[in-house]
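Notes from the 1:1 (GR / supervisor)

We went over the backlog. Supervisor wanted to see one worked example end to end before approving the batch request, so GR pasted a single chain during the call. The sequence is below; no edits were made to it. Supervisor asked that the structure be written out right there so they could see what the output format looks like.
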Amino acid sequence: MKKIDLHIHTIATGKDAGFDFDLEKLKQYVLDQSIDVIAITNHNLFELDQFNTISNSLNIIVLPGIEIDFEN
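Structure output shown during the call:
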């Protein structure tokens, strides 16, 4: 069975509690949990340079995504 985490935040926005992204912590999380696939899903934005850095730093599949706020 594959382990997948489709909800990884890497940039703090107004919707998130304050945090500082740390690539080394993400690498350790992926290793410790034996995760096969992650998706970067920040709120209402996609940072291509950061995504590429993360994708190139991990030996797993990294999917692009965006968590979009929808309000009527």
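Supervisor's comment: Residues 4 and 20 are 23 Å apart (CA to CA).
Batch request approved.
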